Backbone:
């Protein structure tokens, strides 16, 4: 038995209850929000409350970032430096990579290379990368059918997941299905849609079909959590129901 314990230590096997960190890297749809932005909510915020005490969720996502700018601004290297065996890195980019008129624009080739870099450097630290396709925007056609707005970069993400044998959460498809189920009108409840005077942070109102309300963020987080269970990632064993106050 002693030799078995020794092997477990040498090869870095983790006890299911060992403390781990789940790093979130991505853009504004995932990120923490300042009080002045409320009720805008990134899905990474409610996501953090669905785990037991052995899990720390470290949300490094940042508004307006692409894979390229996340690396160039030295936001990725501190994540790598802090990784330890058994940690997770959930990677969701695309919103800001795909827009050619933005300074954050990342070519398809660069986007692919950056995703592979995140994966390889995570694995080099014995951490577990998970790719996530960019969450859907609220856009419907005249017939009330949801319209995909991330097709190219979502497919690039899927391709990298296949090539590198990396777990994939297809949040683009899943969130499109969710929005379709809500419908064109009711889906507004999931996004930052406010009438003038409805909230002091937005006295003139707000019509935003990209960023989420608290309800929308929770719904997107639940899609990610369900996928973690479906993929049978070891992290699924640490998911709990949040405690009510």
Residues:
């Amino acid at each position: 038995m002693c030799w078995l314990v020794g092997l477990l230590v040498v090869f870095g096997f983790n006890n299911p209850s060992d403390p781990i960190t789940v790093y979130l890297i991505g853009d504004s749809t995932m990120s923490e929000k300042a009080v002045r932005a409320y009720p805008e909510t990134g899905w990474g915020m409610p996501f953090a409350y669905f785990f037991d005490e052995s899990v720390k969720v470290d949300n490094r996502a940042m508004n307006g970032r692409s894979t390229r700018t996340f690396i160039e601004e030295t936001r990725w290297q501190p994540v790598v430096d802090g990784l330890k065996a058994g940690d997770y890195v959930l990677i969701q980019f695309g919103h800001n990579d795909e827009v050619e008129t933005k300074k954050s624009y990342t070519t398809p080739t660069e986007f692919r290379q950056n995703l592979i870099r995140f994966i390889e450097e995570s694995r080099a630290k014995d951490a577990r990368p998970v790719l996530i396709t960019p969450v859907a925007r609220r856009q419907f056609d005249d017939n009330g059918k949801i319209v995909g707005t991330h097709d190219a970069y979502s497919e690039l993400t899927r391709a990298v997941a296949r090539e590198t044998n990396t777990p994939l959460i297809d949040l683009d498809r899943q969130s499109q299905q969710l929005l379709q189920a809500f419908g064109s009108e009711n889906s507004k409840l999931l996004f930052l849609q406010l009438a003038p005077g409805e909230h002091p942070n937005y006295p003139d109102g707000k019509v935003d079909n990209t960023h989420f309300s608290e309800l929308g963020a929770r719904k997107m987080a639940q899609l990610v959590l369900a996928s973690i269970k479906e993929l049978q990632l070891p992290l699924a064993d640490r998911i709990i129901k949040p405690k009510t106050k």
